[in-house]
Amino acid sequence: MGFDEGWISILMDCVSTVSYSVILNGSVGDIFHPSRGLRQGDPISPYLFLICGEGLSSLLRQQSSGIGYKIARGAPSVSHLFFADDSVIFGEASTRGASVLRDVLTDYEL
User: Fold this and answer.
1) Which residue intervals define the domain Reverse transcriptase in the entry (predicted)?
2) How far apart are the C-alpha atoms of 38 and 45, rounded to whole Å?
C-alpha cells in the first residue's frame, strides 16, 4: 500500500512487543510474552483493521468479475462488507469465482 518503512517499523513494534505480567497478592510476577496475536481490546486494533481493510477493499473493488452480488437489476454490485472486526466477501459459487478470490487474496498478501 506504499507505507514508509519507518511507519511500518513503528506499527510492528506496537504489535510485536506485547508482554504480560501477573500481579498476585500485590507481588508482580515475571514478564512473559505471548506467542502470537494482538491483545483483545488493544487500542491500536481498530486502526490496524481499518488500514488493512482499506487495502483489501481496494483490491476487491478493482476486480470486475467473479466477485460481487447484485440484489436487483440495475443495483450496484456489493463485493464485501466490513463491520467492527468482521469481513464478509460476496462472490460466485464456482471454480472461476474461487479462483478470482484466491488471486485477490494472493495480491493482498503481498
Assistant:
1) 1-110
2) 7
The pLDDT score that the predictor gives to residue 50 is 86
Using CA atoms of 14, 60, 78, 85 in order, give the dihedral in degrees to the nearest 10.
-10
Strand partners, 86: 83
* Cβ-proximal residues to 80 (8 Å cutoff; 6+ apart), any chain: 56, 57, 60, 67, 87, 88, 89, 90
Task: Tell me the C-alpha distance between 60 and 68, whole Å.
Answer: 9
CA distance 98 to 103: 9
- The reported pLDDT for the residue numbered 37 is 61
Distance in angstroms between the alpha carbons of the first and the last residue of the chain: 10
Q: Which pLDDT score, from 0 to 100, does residue 47 have?
A: 83
Q: Which residues of the chain have pLDDT under 50?
A: none
Q: What is the three-class DSSP state of 21?
A: coil
Could you give the CA distance from residue 14 to residue 44 in angstroms, rounded to a whole number?
Answer: 8
